[in-house]
Design brief:
The protein contains 13 helices and 13 strands. With 372 residues, the chain is of the alpha/beta class. The structure holds pyridoxal-5'-phosphate.
């Protein structure tokens, strides 16, 4: 029997090893080490931002970014329902109110029209999340934000190296966030970053990630922060990984294109959009959505692929259907039909950087036999 094909395996190399050895040999393993600021500077520069603030993970980056905006209690923040819980929990933990928008059935991204419908006098921010490798159509969203004087947070955790027109994802709005979890385009094991052009916001983020220690009287606190610091060991990986980013994007696109070809005539499934007028997909993951007439759902498809030793993951489960939020009285009357449908009909197949051509063909064959 052939080996199991996991959804993702990270690729680490010689430079990563050398940087880690340097951490061990110099003893610099805490957040005080030089790789941290080097990674912050290089990552910020890569997305045309003035400041990078490295943190423990992508969820921490969202916590810090939302808190840094100092929203009024109960202020509304519009975000997609089709995303990871970290986005909504950051809003709730900052004492603001998450307001959800549905997504587009083709790009799986929240649209400006869907955002516009949710704007009220209490809205103070929009949290944009680029889903699965295609960016959100930013121009009309930035125009809305301008018109209504709203903050914008951009969650770019799934789009390192992606651009919107010619602008890097991670360069939009007041603050952008990244994750460097091993399934992201580049990894630090666990890790994240906030990037911004605003000096004051950068200062606030640095303080929030470091327990809000004060420089004058260190152990006197005017605000509660977190210990969300990134270690030098993580940043050592990040510096090496960042050098590979272009190569990674190229490889992910090649994997996506190969699946596109191999699956193009398979009935009953929707493939990811290869491109829009503003971007080419970088296929953070390769998602598939079962057509409505297919007599089984994503859970069953994933079970059957698992029987063929192929790893998969379900699509995000919508925020308005999360028990933890419903118990808090949130989203009681929300209906978001697109997100509800793709959550039940969508899953993604292996697309990690270590995937071989042969494995791609094995996966495609298995999907074909599932559907025919
Ligand atoms: C992965 C991810 C996060 C969370 O990052 P962690 O490092 O796992 O905490 C946040 N937002 C999006 C869109 C993600 O894909």
């Amino acid at each position: 029997m052939s080996d199991f094909i996991p959804v993702n395996v990270p690729v680490l190399g010689e430079q990563e090893r050398e940087n880690l050895v340097e951490c061990v040999e110099t003893g610099w393993v805490s957040s005080g080490g030089a790789f941290v600021s080097e990674f912050e500077e290089e990552m910020a520069a890569r997305v045309d931002r003035q400041h990078g603030i490295a943190v423990a993970n992508g969820s921490a980056a969202l916590d810090v970014a939302v808190r840094a905006l100092d929203l009024d209690p109960g202020a509304e923040v519009i975000l997609p329902t089709f995303t990871i819980i970290s986005c909504a929990s950051a809003v709730v933990r900052a004492g603001a109110t998450p307001v959800l928008a549905d997504c587009d059935p083709e790009t799986w991204n929240m649209t400006a029209n869907q955002v516009a419908e949710k704007i009220t006098p209490r809205t103070e921010a929009i949290m944009v999340v680029h889903i699965y490798g295609l960016p959100v159509d930013m121009e009309p969203i930035m125009a809305l934000a301008d018109e209504h004087d709203l903050h914008v947070i951009e969650d770019a955790a799934e789009v390192h190296g992606q651009t919107y027109h010619d602008y890097p994802c991670g360069s939009f709005g007041d603050l952008s966030t990244f994750s460097f979890y091993p399934n992201k385009h580049i990894t630090t094991g666990e890790g994240g970053m906030v990037v911004t052009d605003d000096d004051d916001l950068a200062e606030r983020c640095r303080s929030l990630r470091n327990l809000c220690f004060q420089s004058e009287r260190r152990f006197v606190h005017e605000e509660m922060g977190w210990n969300y610091r990134m270690s030098n060991v993580q940043a050592a990986l990040g510096v090496a990984q960042l050098e590979r980013l272009d190569e990674v994007v190229e490889k992910k696109r090649a994997i996506g294109r190969r699946y596109d070809e191999l699956l193009s005539d398979v009935p009953g499934i929707q493939q990811p959009l290869p491109a829009t007028d503003y971007a080419e997909n970088i296929y953070w993951v390769y998602g598939l959505v079962l057509d409505d007439h297919v007599p089984f759902d994503a859970a069953e498809a994933m079970d059957r692929l698992d029987d063929q030793r192929i790893g998969t993951r379900p699509f995000f489960w919508p925020m308005h259907e999360q028990p933890v939020f419903r118990e808090q009285g949130l989203f009681e009357h929300d209906r978001h039909p697109v997100a509800e449908r793709i959550a039940r009909r969508g899953f993604y197949v292996p697309s990690g950087l270590a995937l071989t051509n042969e494995q791609i063909e094995t996966v495609a064959d298995a999907v074909r036999s599932l559907m025919t």
